[in-house]
TrEMBL record:
Catalyzed chemical reaction(s): L-lysine + NADPH + O2 = N(6)-hydroxy-L-lysine + NADP(+) + H2O
Protein keywords: FAD, Flavoprotein, Monooxygenase, NADP, Oxidoreductase
Record protein name field: L-lysine N6-monooxygenase MbtG
Domain of life of the organism encoding this protein: Bacteria
Molecular functions per Gene Ontology: L-lysine 6-monooxygenase (NADPH) activity
Length: 483
């Protein structure tokens, strides 16, 4: 069997409406494009304003690994026979045997980025250097209109176009988040303060700085701290690592804990009342904002190695601290700190700051401005999203069968698994099944040993059913004694 993916057999008629338009080409919409590729007669196109696929290029630090197994590629968990699997990528590079002997379940980030770029360079219907400007509803044609602009190599607009489609899938990803107290630093062009997303671009400048402070106690903060530590001489580390969490805490990575990143938990979470979902998300930070145990161990090993000849490294790890304000003090940066538990305050003067303060979902408002009158929102003004990852629109629109799906913009409705790479293929397959109205990809009826909620206490009739039985809601019987 050939390992080279075949081009699609179906080509649309010029000007004909599309079945699906994808907005953004990150891992999630790339997964959707890969799984849509072999479906006969399905007409798709994906737009991305960047010139090529790039996945967090500023954080592809040597040796950093994905926090999910390589099976969480673009397609495997929905279709392991797809030509777009990570294993097939290795085969096209004659690297299967080296990978086999490496015995690595978690691959390097740079390798994942290279794999995704291979898919993006070989998959048809991807349009880079195309910016989507608006999505609107055309009631006369019962179709969505997608306005887009083709960009030149210089980023200047070259041509505009409009595509009509039955479905839109928004996968515009996230953007670096800078908390308000730290905003004055990044807004000042002459201050050496940057988000971790740009770390590698400015690493030489940071290594040359006298004292560096890393703000943020998640995985990115730990990786940046570790890389700086490894490149600064013993006794002259001059590093601070501060974060708001009460500890530099490991990510929850127990087998049953990981079942929060299954379709079973996603369905359970979506069915919860909105206030319960919001409380849960705030309490589950360690499921997705903690630090990998291997990274924590590597930080400790590096610090310990520097004590072998006596003395302690000039590196200070201080959790439970928030930055109240930040500004310049002469040619340096001054951070005004508050210890959350002690209630004490202090100042820290430093030469450079790396903000490992995470990412936020890009707002959908700009692209969806013309659809705003048709959107249904929750009590906090966020778009309502149904169980099939569709924005809840006016019944007049949804009755036509047209829909706007979202990828990684539904954490508030679908839980901590929304940004997780391990659910990418499952969500993409779910969207395609919904779009085509048939089971193009057979998805499992059960994915977790944990039973989330009493309404799921319905055992399967067979230990391993070949075709999962349909799930029907069943009325709960109150337990005795009011429990």
């Amino acid at each position: 069997m050939s390992t080279t993916p075949h081009p699609p057999r179906h080509e649309p008629e010029p000007g004909a409406p599309r079945d699906l338009v994808g907005v953004g080409i990150g891992p999630f919409n790339l997964s959707l494009a890969a799984l849509a590729h072999p479906i006969p007669g399905l007409d798709t196109v994906f737009y991305e304003q960047r010139p090529r696929f790039d996945w967090h290029p500023g954080l592809l630090i040597d040796g950093t690994r994905l926090q999910v197994p390589f099976l969480a590629d673009l397609v495997t968990l929905a279709d392991p026979t797809s030509p777009w699997t990570f294993l097939n990528y290795l085969k096209t590079r004659d690297r299967l045997f080296p990978f086999y002997f490496a015995e690595r379940f978690h691959i390097q980030r740079a390798e994942y980025d290279a794999y995704c770029r291979w898919v993006s360079e070989n998959l048809p219907r991807l349009r880079f250097r195309h910016r989507v400007d608006a999505v609107r509803w055309n009631p006369g044609r019962n179709l969505f209109e997608v306005d887009h602009t083709r960009l030149g190599p210089d980023g200047e607009a070259r041509a505009t176009g409009r595509t009509h489609t039955r479905a839109v899938v928004l996968g515009i990803g996230t953007e670096p988040h800078v908390p308000d107290p730290l905003r004055p630093l990044v807004d000042a062009p002459d201050v050496p303060a940057l988000h971790a997303a740009d770390y590698l671009t400015h690493r030489d400048t940071l290594l040359a700085a006298g004292h560096v402070t890393v703000v943020g106690s998640g995985q990115s903060g730990a990786e940046v701290l570790l890389d700086l530590l490894r490149h600064r001489p013993p006794g002259r580390e001059r590093l601070h690592w501060i974060g708001r969490t009460p500890a530099f805490a490991p990510m929850e990575y127990s087998k049953l804990g990981l079942e929060h990143f299954t379709p079973d938990y996603t369905r359970y979470f979506h069915a919860l009342p909105e206030p319960v979902r919001d409380r849960l998300l705030a309490a589950q930070w360690q499921l997705h904002k903690g630090i990998g145990a291997d990274t924590l161990a590597a930080v400790h090993d590096e610090l310990y190695r520097r004590t072998l000849h006596g003395g302690w490294p000039d590196a200070h790890l201080v959790p439970g601290v928030r930055v109240r304000t930040a500004g310049r003090n002469g040619g340096r940066i001054e951070l005004h700190l508050e210890h959350v538990q002690q209630g004490t305050r202090s100042r820290l003067t430093t030469d450079a700051v790396v903000l490992a303060t995470g990412y936020r979902q890009r707002p959908l408002d700009r692209i969806l401005a013309d659809l705003d009158p048709h959107l249904r929102r929750d009590s906090r003004g966020r778009p309502r999203i149904d169980a099939r990852h569709r924005l809840v629109l006016d019944p007049a629109i949804s009755a036509t069968g047209c829909a706007v799906h979202v990828q990684n913009a539904e954490t508030h409705t679908h839980g901590v698994g929304a940004p997780d790479l391990g659910l990418a293929a499952w969500r993409s397959a779910s969207i395609l099944n919904t779009l085509t109205g048939r089971e193009v990809y057979r998805l499992p009826g059960r994915t977790a040993f944990t039973t989330f909620g009493l309404d799921q206490l319905h055992p399967h009739p067979h230990p391993c059913p070949q075709t999962p039985p349909a799930r029907h809601p069943r009325e709960l019987t109150p337990l005795a004694d009011g429990t």
